[in-house]
């Protein structure tokens, strides 16, 4: 291995969906200054290692599934308790892998080894450093990241293992440290840097935030193996920063303290990075890591203009702030520039509480902004904090009523939390300003309006129940811990322990791999509409079971970016008898004889279940594998391929002059057809046209499920002048059971306008063997290799 000057490392647990942008920025900056940098994401390495190495699976009773470990990664990312438990598991049961990584770090010969820390990975990082020091105590250990800033605010840096601490933005501080210490070995005062000398910490001098973000080179990610995060580039998103800092300074939040004032990159610099990643990696999805992307609405609008003008077909999501300059027009422009999701830190809908939080907006403005965002076609998510100091029952009900009024405009509550005291925040530094009394023995607090931990947790449960009734999903729920009856163990610790024990000891069957095969049984990730596709499922039975159920489901996204369940089939629906399965490995294939999907990206969920009625599966691979479909029919659009044919009969060449379009016999919805149709039967719609200038128009028929387009068929051949009757026949109808609507539209060939009719609704009945979801696809199960007991 070549000699390096600096190592930059991210330890687990952390996000496994994309590379860490923090060490990516540092790497690129230090390389631009001439330093040789070795960059390693140990988080993704460990994630992949524990799912693949036989020794680790064996050490956990041979029954841990990789997807369950991924779930534990996600669970432990929410609190320090789980990080502590999982750190212990990794260092006791994957020690040889960790020792190998320590040797790999030392083989770089880098004098300086830097770690990015946060509250979830600090325990693991400290343990790694201890192992490094056991083998070579001469290396200089540098810590940076959010946990350093948090620990500094609590005067607890002494407990960490590092020799040097970088507080706040790292680029300039780290560079100046290496420039001075690397050449002379002297310990000189540097803004943003704290040294440990003879066990004592030096005085801290703050560093001003980097004013011009365009002076920083953007990360290239060439030093990460992107296939470790997702083998399919089109299913991956890259982390991205349009800005740093925050315009707000909320009384409960550390972000302004850690990230400083808001600063935005120039739109040109930001677009240049987007174009680089598109050309370099072919990745068009971006996850903005900004605290808020809209702190400067003018810069954001110009960025969107440039994306649209240059025809960059990207998708991105970000956090945003409630801002009076966020107009409906700006939201529509953001959507046209690829914005598919925004998360607003609403927190409360009580104006009194918002003022206590030091928010700069009202609940009325928040309601307008959230609705405008949703109406523009952007998934609109919010965060909620219940039980803020001073919050009364009336204030809490303001938030509940806000959710009820806006249920149709909120896609998700990303984070539902009780108010927890965070280091460095105003409420923690000056609790008396909020009439807060800290209960140090129970590690909690209460205020002067009866706001106790029990009251806050009750409010959280009440809000959670309301969201469930409103069908608004919740991402993360953060609830304060209450001491359990078991001495020294909280309720959450006990629940988590049971979850880990189930993951390690309770597995019965698992899916080892999912593979897509084409008609010739070759591996394939891209298909054409109508192709035969086989979903081949290799599985392992760990304990003898009887009559398990295998299930495959296909999902996609509609034009509103909503997830749609398109097709599902299990072995029971087809009457496939599995019988008794012995311990061992096997394979079962679902052969889809005609892939009735249009162009797009789709993903599979596959599972092994005890029965159709079972609530919990033996094993479930959720959104585990993706594939792409291409179609060649320009006259179809939407999600599904649906055979459709138009016939037009001229009634009179003389137009009546009304230039009207209507569905005949609207009272009965369809021409002599029942309101309820059946899958695989013919289905016909009769439409009367009356056109004076038929050359201007073509006819389009759209099928809808709720608000999403399912299928569109166009008649682009010339239409007759005068009165005519058009018949549209779906032969056969491939829709599965459910309620649908159909709309006939007269489209102007030149202008971007159309004439719509009222939606006509209808129901579809389908048979059990047709499968579940949205579209019928002929399929069959094939038992390729089934483990049986030898008799």
By CATH reckoning, the class of the largest domain would read Alpha Beta
Instruction: Quote the beta fraction.
Output: 25-35%
Structural class: alpha/beta
The global form is globular
Arithmetic mean of pLDDT: 84
Span between termini: 56 Å
CATH architecture of the largest domain: Alpha-Beta Horseshoe
Total count of domains: 4
The count of helical stretches stands at 19
Strand order of the largest sheet: 2-1-3-4-5-6-7
Number of strands: 41
State the CATH superfamily name of the largest domain. tm_1862 like domain
Sheet of most strands: 7 strands, mixed
- The fold-level CATH name of the largest domain is pyruvate-formate lyase- activating enzyme
Helix content: 25-40%
Radius of gyration: 30 Å
Low-confidence segments = 51-71, 75-81, 483-506, 659-674
């Amino acid at each position: 291995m070549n000699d390096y000057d600096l190592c930059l490392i991210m330890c687990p647990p952390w996000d496994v969906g994309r590379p860490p942008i923090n060490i990516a920025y540092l790497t690129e900056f230090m390389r631009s200054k001439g330093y040789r940098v070795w960059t390693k994401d140990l988080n993704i390495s460990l994630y992949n290692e524990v799912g693949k190495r036989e020794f680790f699976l064996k050490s956990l009773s041979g029954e841990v599934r990789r997807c369950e470990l991924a779930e534990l990664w996600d669970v432990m990312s929410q609190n320090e308790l789980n990080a502590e438990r999982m750190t212990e598991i990794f260092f006791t049961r994957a020690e040889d892998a960790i020792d190998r990584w320590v040797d790999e770090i030392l083989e770089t010969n880098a004098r300086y080894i830097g770690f990015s820390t946060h509250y979830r990975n600090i325990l693991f990082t400290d343990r790694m450093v201890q192992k490094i020091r056991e083998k070579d105590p001469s290396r200089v250990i540098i810590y940076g990241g959010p946990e350093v800033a948090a620990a500094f605010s609590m005067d607890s840096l002494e407990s960490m293992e590092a020799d040097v601490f970088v507080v706040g933005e790292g680029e300039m501080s780290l560079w100046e440290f290496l420039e001075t210490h690397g050449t002379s070995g002297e310990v000189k005062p540097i803004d943003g840097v704290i040294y440990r000398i003879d066990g004592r910490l030096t005085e801290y001098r703050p560093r001003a935030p980097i004013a011009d973000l365009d002076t920083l080179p953007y990360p290239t990610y060439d030093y990460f193996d992107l296939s470790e995060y997702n083998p399919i580039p089109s299913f991956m998103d890259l982390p991205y920063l349009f800005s740093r800092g925050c315009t707000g300074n909320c009384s409960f939040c550390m972000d302004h303290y850690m990230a400083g004032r808001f600063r935005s990159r120039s739109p040109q610099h930001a677009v240049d990075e987007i174009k680089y990643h598109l050309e370099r990696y072919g990745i068009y999805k971006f996850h903005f890591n900004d605290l808020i992307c809209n702190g400067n609405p003018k810069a954001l609008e110009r960025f969107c203009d440039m994306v649209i003008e240059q025809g960059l077909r990207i998708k991105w999501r970000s956090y945003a702030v409630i801002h009076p300059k966020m107009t409906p027009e700006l939201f529509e422009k953001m959507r046209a520039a690829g914005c598919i999701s925004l998360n607003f830190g609403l927190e409360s809908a009580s104006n009194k509480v918002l003022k206590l939080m030091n928010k700069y907006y009202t609940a009325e403005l928040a309601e307008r902004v959230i609705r405008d965002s949703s109406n523009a076609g952007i998934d609109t998510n919010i965060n909620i904090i219940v039980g803020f100091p001073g919050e009364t029952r009336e204030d809490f009900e303001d938030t509940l009523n806000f959710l009820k009024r806006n249920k149709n405009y909120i896609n998700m509550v990303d984070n539902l939390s009780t108010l927890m005291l965070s280091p460095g925040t105003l409420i923690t530094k000056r609790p008396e300003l909020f009439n807060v009394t800290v209960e140090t023995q129970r590690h909690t607090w209460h205020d002067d309006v009866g706001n106790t931990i029990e009251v806050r947790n009750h409010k959280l449960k009440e809000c959670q129940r309301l969201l469930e009734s409103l069908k608004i999903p919740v991402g993360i729920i953060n609830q304060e811990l209450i001491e359990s009856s078991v001495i020294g163990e909280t309720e959450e610790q006990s629940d988590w322990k049971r979850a880990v024990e189930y993951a390690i000891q309770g597995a019965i069957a698992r899916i080892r791999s999912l593979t897509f095969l084409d008609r010739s049984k070759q591996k394939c990730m891209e298909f054409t509409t109508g192709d035969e596709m086989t979903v081949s499922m290799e599985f392992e039975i760990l304990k003898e079971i009887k009559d398990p159920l295998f299930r495959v489901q296909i999902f996609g996204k509609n034009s509103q970016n909503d997830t749609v369940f398109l097709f599902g089939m299990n072995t029971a629906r087809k009457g496939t008898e599995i019988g008794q399965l012995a311990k061992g490995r096997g394979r079962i294939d679902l052969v889809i004889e005609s892939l009735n999907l249009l162009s797009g990206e789709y993903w599979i969920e596959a599972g092994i279940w005890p029965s159709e009625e079972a609530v919990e599966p033996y094993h479930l691979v959720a959104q585990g594998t993706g594939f792409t479909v291409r179609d060649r029919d320009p006259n179809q659009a939407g999600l599904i391929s649906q055979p459709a044919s138009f016939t037009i009969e001229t009634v009179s060449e003389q137009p009546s002059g009304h230039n009207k379009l209507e569905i005949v016999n609207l009272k009965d919805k369809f021409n002599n057809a029942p309101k309820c149709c059946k899958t695989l039967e013919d289905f016909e719609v009769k439409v009367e046209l009356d056109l004076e200038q038929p050359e201007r128009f073509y006819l389009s028929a759209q099928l809808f499920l709720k608000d999403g387009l399912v299928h569109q068929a166009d008649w682009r051949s010339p239409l007759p002048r005068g009165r005519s009757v058009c018949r549209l026949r779906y032969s056969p109808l491939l829709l599965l059971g459910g309620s649908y609507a159909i709309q006939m539209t007269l489209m102007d060939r030149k202008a971007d306008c159309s004439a719509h009719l009222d939606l006509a609704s209808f129901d579809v009945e389908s048979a059990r063997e047709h499968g579940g979801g949205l579209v019928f696809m002929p399929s069959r199960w094939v038992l390729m290799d089934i483990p049986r007991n030898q008799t």
